Amino acid sequence: TINTTIIEPTKLEMYTIVQFLNIAPMVILFSNRKSKLEKEIVEILIACGADVISDKSVVSAGGFFTLAICYKKTEINTKKAIALYVDDSAKFKNQILPDEVVGICEDKNINALENFKKNKVAVVTCGNNAKNTITLSSIEKGNYILTLQRQITNLKGDTLCPADYKITLEKQYSPEAVMLSGAVLCLIDRN
Question: What is the DSSP letter of 97?
Fold first, then answer.
């Protein structure tokens, strides 16, 4: 026989656990399965401390934030999350998003932009023109200069002013993957 003892956490330990769960940011990535852009973003964000949850795997890489990958409309019940739309797909057109979600997408992702507008979600757009919140001002062999072109408020409530961020990656990624990942990192205050 095996003797087991159940150890109940103290109120302080429970409070600490709840505090951690409320602090660790959640990024929800909406993508078509097997998207090259999704794969690049996941690689970049794991290197920056993302734990990844999908229907195929769970990867722990440091636990600074959680990246949940959704391939179909999903019920979302969380606060202070980021909704990252990777592909311009109509299958997420009527996705319901909670009030405190911030959206990230490319400026050409019409379905995502329409869904964010419908859900009254603040949006960070990424692209190569002056209208976008995030753009790249330099790309050279794994070295990028990410430009925040307008003031944004991160998930902690801090204001980020326009600035340039130097990003060095071990391999070359598409500009879209770097911009979208950079937007996530700005919003979760992981500079």
Answer: -
